[in-house]
């Protein structure tokens, strides 16, 4: 199978932005094992800004654009250094690809991104993608950001015609209500169609049921399922959950690729 796995900052780093070593080590081990089993993996990894904050010892995430971009420039190095080291232990070669919105929205440029990814996969390398946070900006008149990696990972999955998109998050999946506020909230195992009722579960733009931006996850699900790709939201707390998923066990929330669309 060709799989795009997206991992969020909350999975990769502790609250202060320093690397969650145990978790990242386990993630790299499991992904290496899945590659050894013959699956093609593309990793979409956040964490550049968070790890930059941690490495620089800043008190929090910078509010201003140059601050965010500079933190990302530092953190992206740390991120790739870590992946290179850990995947290298299992003899897998990593490849860094940093994208802006233009790279995927411009048809000619996206062809190059596609071709590079295909070549990397054919060479058995592991592409690791993030937004190019150090240069993408969202100022008036210039909009070169995608903004978040849930959407980016769905666009990548569509571009490479992936069989499955997995979003590893800090929540188990999509719930019937906010599980932090409502004890009766129940995890929804399968979403056959992304209806307005399902979208309403995200609680509106920019907010989320649990932590971690359910609205952008549903946006990603919409892109993936419209392209016929299944998407799963699962909790990245224990990366071994990926084994369960590949063994066909029920994990998190699965959005059926055939059941599009709003
Ligand atoms: N590209 C951002 C980073 O690496 C993360 C975006 C997101 O969290 O979706 O820090």
Quickly describe the structure.
With 262 residues, the chain is of the alpha/beta class.
Mean pLDDT: 90
How is the largest sheet built, in terms of strand order?
A: 3-4-2-1-5-7-8-6
Strand residue content: 15-25%
The class by helix and strand makeup works out as alpha/beta
Which ions, cofactors or small ligands are bound in this entry? Answer: glutamic acid
Uncertain parts: 204-212
Taken together, the total number of domains comes to: 1
Main pleated-sheet profile: 8 strands, mixed
Helix amount: 40-55%
- Return the string of H and E elements: EHHEHHEHHEHEEHHEHE
SSE map:
Blueprint (H helix, E strand, L loop, with lengths): L1 E6 L1 H4 L8 H16 L3 E6 L2 H9 L8 H25 L4 E6 L1 H5 L1 H16 L3 E6 L17 H11 L4 E6 L20 E2 L4 H5 L13 H13 L3 E6 L5 H6 L6 E3 L7
Parallel strand pairs: 1-2, 1-5, 2-4, 3-4, 5-7, 6-8
Antiparallel strand pairs: 7-8
The structure holds glutamic acid.
Report what the structure shows.
- This protein is α/β, with parallel strands linked by helices.
- It has one domain (2-255): Acetylglutamate kinase-like (Carbamate kinase, 3-Layer(aba) Sandwich), CATH 3.40.1160.
- The protein contains ten helices and eight strands.
- The protein has an eight-stranded mixed beta sheet, sandwiched between helices.
- Helix 3 crosses helix 4 (65-89) and helix 7 packs parallel to helix 9.
- It starts with a strand and ends in a 7-residue tail after the last strand.
- The relative contact order is 0.15.
- The structure holds glutamic acid (GLU).
- Residues 8-9, 46-50, 72, 130-131, 133, 148-149 line the site of glutamic acid.
């Amino acid at each position: 199978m060709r799989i795009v796995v997206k991992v969020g900052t909350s999975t990769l780093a502790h609250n202060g932005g320093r690397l969650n070593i145990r978790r990242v080590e386990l993630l790299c081990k499991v992904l290496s094992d899945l590659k050894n089993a013959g699956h093609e993996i593309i990793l979409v990894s956040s964490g550049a800004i968070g790890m930059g904050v941690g490495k620089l010892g800043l008190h929090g995430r910078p509010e201003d654009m140059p601050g965010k971009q500079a933190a990302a420039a530092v953190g992206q190095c740390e991120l790739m250094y870590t992946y290179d080291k850990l995947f290298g232990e299992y003899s897998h070669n990593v490849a860094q690809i940093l994208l802006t919105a233009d790279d995927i929205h411009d048809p000619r440029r996206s062809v190059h991104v596609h071709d590079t990814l295909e070549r990397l996969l054919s060479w058995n390398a592991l592409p690791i993608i993030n937004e190019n946070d150090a240069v993408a900006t969202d100022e008036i008149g210039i909009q070169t950001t995608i903004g978040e990696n849930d959407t980016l990972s769905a666009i990548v999955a569509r571009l490479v015609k992936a069989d499955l998109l997995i979003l590893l998050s800090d929540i188990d999946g999509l719930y019937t209500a906010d599980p932090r506020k409502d004890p009766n909230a129940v995890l929804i195992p399968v979403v056959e169609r992304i209806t307005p009722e399902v979208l309403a579960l995200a609680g509106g733009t920019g907010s989320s049921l649990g932590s971690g931006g359910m609205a952008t996850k549903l946006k990603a699900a919409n892109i993936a399922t419209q392209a016929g790709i299944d998407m799963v939201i699962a909790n990245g707390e224990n990366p071994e959950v990926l084994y369960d998923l590949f063994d066909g066990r029920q994990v998190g929330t699965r959005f059926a690729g055939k059941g599009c669309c709003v």
